[in-house]
Amino acid sequence: MDEVTAVPDSVAVIGGGRMGAGIAQVFAASGAAVSVVEGDESSVAAARQRVADGLAKAAERGKLAEEPSVVLDRVAVFADLARVPRDVALVVEAVPERPELKVDVLTRAEKVVSESTVLATNTSSLSIAELGAALREPGRFLGMHFFNPVPASKLVEVVTAPETGAEVTDSVRGWVRALGKTDVVVRDSPGFATSRLGVLLGLEAIRMLEEGVADAEAIDTAMELGYRHPMGPLRSTDLVGLDVRLAIAEYLHSTLGERFAPPKLLRDKVAAGELGRKSGRGFHDWS
Ligand SMILES: NC(=O)c1ccc[n+]([C@@H]2O[C@H](COP(=O)([O-])OP(=O)(O)OC[C@H]3O[C@@H](n4cnc5c(N)ncnc54)[C@H](O)[C@@H]3O)[C@@H](O)[C@H]2O)c1
Q: InterPro entries of this UniProt entry (predicted)?
């Protein structure tokens, strides 16, 4: 198969929230016509505004080759999934992280698009094989795990289930590169590559803090300067949100075992409302 060097002509994104708007933005900026499907009519305008805001920001930073309005003209936002063009090459699902909701929109999308359309989910934690099991053709389904904020993030984890067709994986890897991003292929497993390693490091840093090995600033500085991590594990937990990290840790604990058991300090901070940057305080002070 020839290597794909361009994004598809036509893409659909289901869910125009934080991630979906970013995904729509990067595909449209690379030349694709993008259909964004929202949950109901009342959410359509906000989703369109999120894409417009993202494009304006990209233009300000000199990252857009065209006028934002020209790129936005390639983006259609609507609430009726049946309006997705049949010939889209790719559908990326980015609705909230609830399995029954994801299965619902994916199975409905499968009925609307052609047999050759690739279906992808942006789930950060759910099993690709379990979501795919609800589809008529799980061979055309995989995970495309984008990072937040999508336009600035270089990585997309391409998550493959045993059923995923090799040519589907190849196409998606080519599209990721055509977006100017880097793909890593990861087998469907809890936490994929990024959450599994990132969360483990964060949990160990919290245990070190609990044990009084060093204070938060010292632990973060140790990794930033000693190992050249762009951000220490506690600062990074503050940015992600302690509540979000706790939920992922609980899931990984239940699937991968004791090494992911959430430390008491993490639970206590979440219970106290110290959720990181968004609440003004986590392991560091952000006020
Ligand atoms: N936020 C992150 O940092 C991040 C990173 C990677 C992956 N993810 C994953 O991406 C997905 C979306 O996360 P998000 O942060 O963008 O959430 P979000 O809440 O910002 O966006 C979800 C969007 O889906 C819409 N929606 C709800 N029901 C719908 C339906 N039936 N049909 C169409 N649209 C519907 C909502 O109106 C909303 O705009 C989740 O699976 C999440 O785990 C999030």
A: 3-OHacyl-CoA_DH, 3-OHacyl-CoA_DH_NAD-bd, 3HC_DH_C, 6-PGluconate_DH-like_C_sf, 6PGD_dom2, NAD(P)-bd_dom_sf
